[in-house]
Amino acid sequence: MSEHLTHLTLADQFFRDQGSAGGSGELSTILNRVTLAARMIANTVLRAGLHGNLGKTGGVNVQGEEVKELDVISNEIFEEVFDRTPVVAAIASEEKDDVHYYSEDVQRGKYVLLHDPLDGSGNVDINGSMGTIFSIYRRKDVERPASLADFLRQGHEQVAAGYMLYGPATLFVYSVGGTVNGFTLDRSVGAFFLTHPNIRIPEGKGSYAVNEANEGKWDDKTRAMVRAFREGTTDCGKRSARYVGALVADFHRTLVQGGVYMYPGEVQKPNGKLRLLYEAKPLAFIARQAGGHASTGRMPILDVQAEELHQRTPLYIGSTGDVEEIERRLRG
Ligand code: F6P
Ligand code: MN
């Protein structure tokens, strides 16, 4: 292999090539800005221990300065990066109660963006993997100022979605429909290179991921269904158990190796924990484009009409065979 990386495809080149068929280039601009936010967050996460930003409490560091939580910093990075990206009219974050509108200017932009800036931030203290999830919609009526209605959409309407995984390497995985492609950050040159072209989710193998400590909170059907995965009595075949506890990391493993990730609803909390717009829909879009499936247990995630910004949903996502068997068992 050449010591130079010129034989590899740069992410921004790839965005341009993918969007070149009559596109205005605005979507590739947004994707480029997302990868900038990704590099900035990756750098922050990498150096968090050195700067005293570990921990969830937001205390005081050894220099006596107030320490911001990493998810707050990651959120600010996104807001600032898109403050300078006029094609995005407004942004919504899992970290914020309300939409952040950049300007009253109706010409401001055709797109809105949603993000979960630091998914799995509970892993901060153990140097575990974390991620960022993003989702992009084209505004329905660009003659009017952006509004909440631009965000409360069906998953099918996403024009792009993806995630960054901050693990031993930083990965950027996204789709604008058609294919799912993954890039790896080369820190020495600060650029993402195509390393996972056309990802397809395998069928009939892989792992199941679920927080089984919640078993006592599930209804009987959910309990019996998860037990079938544990005991290897599913029709889709035997699966290993894996659980990182960071959705992006658990989903990425499922996408590459197959199987299913689940966060079921509970008797007391029927919609479970995960957020429809910031977590379930973008990952459902990726799963679908990679040949997989995502479900609430009753209906495809992509068909759910969002009613509020921070709505939660049960999530079953992964290989189509595994998710369809779960739907059958929960129905039956
Ligand atoms: O964002 C929610 C989240 O942190 C996900 O990343 C993760 O999969 C999940 O919560 C873990 O939840 P629990 O600790 O309940 O298993
Ligand atoms: Mn999250």
User: How can the largest sheet be summarized?
Assistant: 8 strands, mixed
* CATH architectural arrangement of the largest domain: 2-Layer Sandwich
Low-confidence stretches: none
Tertiary shape: globular
In order across it, which strands form the biggest sheet? 2-1-3-4-5-6-7-8
**What is the terminal-to-terminal distance?**
54 Å
Total DSSP E strands:
13
Question: How does this model look, in words?
Answer:
The model has no long low-confidence stretch (mean pLDDT 91). Strands 2-1-3-4-5-6-7-8 form an 8-stranded mixed beta sheet, with helices on both faces. It has a 5-stranded mixed beta sheet with strand order 10-9-11-13-12, with helices on both faces. It has helices at residues 11-19, 26-47, 70-83, 220-231, 247-257, 276-289, 320-331, and strands spanning 88-93, 100-101, 111-119, 130-138, 158-166, 170-175, 181-186, 191-196, 207-209, 240-241, 259-263, 293-295, 315-318. The chain is globular and about 55 Å long. The chain is built from 7 helices and 13 strands. The protein folds into 2 domains: 8-196, 2-Layer Sandwich (Fructose-1,6-Bisphosphatase, Chain A, domain 1), CATH 3.30.540; 207-331, 3-Layer(aba) Sandwich (D-Maltodextrin-Binding Protein, domain 2), CATH 3.40.190. The chain has 332 residues and is α+β, with helices and mostly antiparallel strands. The protein binds 6-O-phosphono-beta-D-fructofuranose and manganese (II) ion.
